[in-house]
Write the structure tokens for this entry.
Amino acid sequence: MNTARDDILGGIRRALRRGPVSSENGAELHERVATHRRNLVPARAAALGHRSRVELFIAMAEAVQTTVARISSEGDIPAEVARYLAAENLPAELVLAPDASLDRIPWDQRPLLQIRRGRAEAHDAVSLTPCLAGIAETGTLLLASGPGTPSTLNFLPDTHIVVLHASRVVASYEDGWDLLRNLNNPSPQAGEVDRPTGGPEGADGAPLLPRTVNLITGPSRTGDIEQRIQLGAHGPRRLHIVLVEDAPPQP
Amino acid sequence: MQPTSRSFPANARAGLADPVLQQALGLARTGFPQRRLEAIARLPEFEDLREEGRAIKDHVLAHLDFYLELYERNVIASGGHVHWARNAEEARAAILDICRAANAKIVTKGKSMVAEEIALNEHLEQNGITPVETDLGEYIIQLRHEPPSHIIAPAIHLMKEQVADAFRSAHTELDPARPLGDPRALCDEARTVLRPRFLAADVGITGANFIVAETGSSIIVTNEGNGDLTQILPRVHIAVTGIEKVVPTLEDAATLLRLLARSATGQEFSSYTTISTGPRRPGDLDGPEEYHVVLVDNGRSALLGGEFQDMLRCLRCAACLNHCPVYAAVGGHAYGWVYPGPMGAVLTPALVGVGEAGHLPNASTFCGRCESVCPVKIPLPRMMRHWREREFAWKLSPPVYRSGLRLWAWVAQRPALYHALAGIASRVLGWAGIHRGRFRSLPLASGWTAVRDMPAPQGRSFQSLWAEHRRHQGRSR
């Protein structure tokens, strides 16, 4: 008896009136995948210089109820977080991503902030995480899971604060994909430790994507009742970006 | 669910007479199309993106076996499992097996039309597993024990009062006197009630808007964040999806994602677009320990290579529903199965048979709005015509209708006779209706005159005006 897999693939080939893809044609298709050629990328963000791209990112993010605070250095993050929590009438408690990129933030400047590091639990009200990039075309944040960046931090708490460096604002989703593909994953899979590339790999030797990649554009929302938009359906009610205005990337 | 598409005429009449439904549809008629129009006006490349989206999907369909095999290899390489299902029964069995192996009691679900198509919830319930819908709209209709009436806004047929009633009868542990007068309160209550379910679930089941061959990933697009809580909290994540959802690369997904949210809700981008690849990795503090994909054929591969292949480009954005005058008048339940509106009128006969769903492709004015807003340019009216032709060829339409159509075709093939008969009819009607200008009722046309007047023909026929116009043109040259 044929397996379901054989039947489905066979059915597809019969319907298309051909056998399996020939090796020549297959090589072409593999090439199409391996080069990950870009399709049309809208000019909206791609045509902009870095400074205007950051402005576009902020405008697009604010248009979907994300709030953005611009600060000039990482040293100002604790003050901004304390200010934001007080302004929103939130307790001075947060769960912080256990990622090394947040280690150098001088939290001891604000001793009243209670900080726990780890994944989010049911009772956590506020989380703070880093992100890989901001995508200007729609004001979208790109976050990738890993040992230092558990995905629950992005969804369980009512309030999600994200640290974004202005130098990490890119134009398009495609720019984000390139960042993902070049991530040097420091935790190789079991049994693969001796691979020279270090990171886990997909079937054709391409680097494996992080387990969960989140593109986040504004706080959680629903229009399921009478099409009236409500924020905070299941994910965070508030999304706050702390934008660190560091030096723009060298071209 | 058992289709009731055979009773479309009766369903539609009931929908037209339902004041709550009409009020709810009134809100939908203006909201979605207006927001879509504004969103595409902000993106000058939108038309070019539609063309590219169409081309990407056509490329995939021409090499569907290749991309599915590549996708499967990459899922396995990332530590996930792929299950192939020829039909709904195999898909349900595969999912039940995974749930049983995980010793699951509570299963949370993100919104999935394929899960509706394979009637997954009933099957899980029959086998002692409690499925909990977590999308707000899906949760509401699950409480009301009814199917979705729209593919992205499942509870669009309801007003807030019906939602409040459903919550009061389901959430008996809460104070019966609590105020539930506005959507905010209802949304908060659903959030509060569902949060412990998310945390208690053993298995999370989502659909997939796209699956990516290059990376072995599944992509979901949501606004509420429920799909994400569904796929990262439980120990096991199952993504159930149709075989046509595969795209070659993330770049191809990006193009289609740019089309999807704008076409669906008129958003620039949905709140959450999430790419999931395999189970949790070493060192991860959260994420599922097992990742399964159930690839469902269920009649899809049979559409390849024929006149309905274009339907497999569908992104399930619902733009065709949102712009359809028939859908807007009768609502989604009238269509009697999972997929309503123009896309349902083409897909439902393909999946459940034209004998069952033959009314649906006939429920169209052929105004063409669906095709004009489709992000991947599916020629929906043309395919509805194909179904009508098959229905006629396979002798599925009623005899009176068939002989009427045959008679009309016979006359229409004889232009002289046609003009003579049409001229007589129009003169008789014009004379009979000369005073009032319209008819309240007409023999053989009660289907029309029961709900509106028939205008009486006035002046000369188009044919004679056209002939005269041509004569004038000939003279002026």
Remarks:
- Chain B has three domains: 1-38+318-397, 43-301, 400-476.
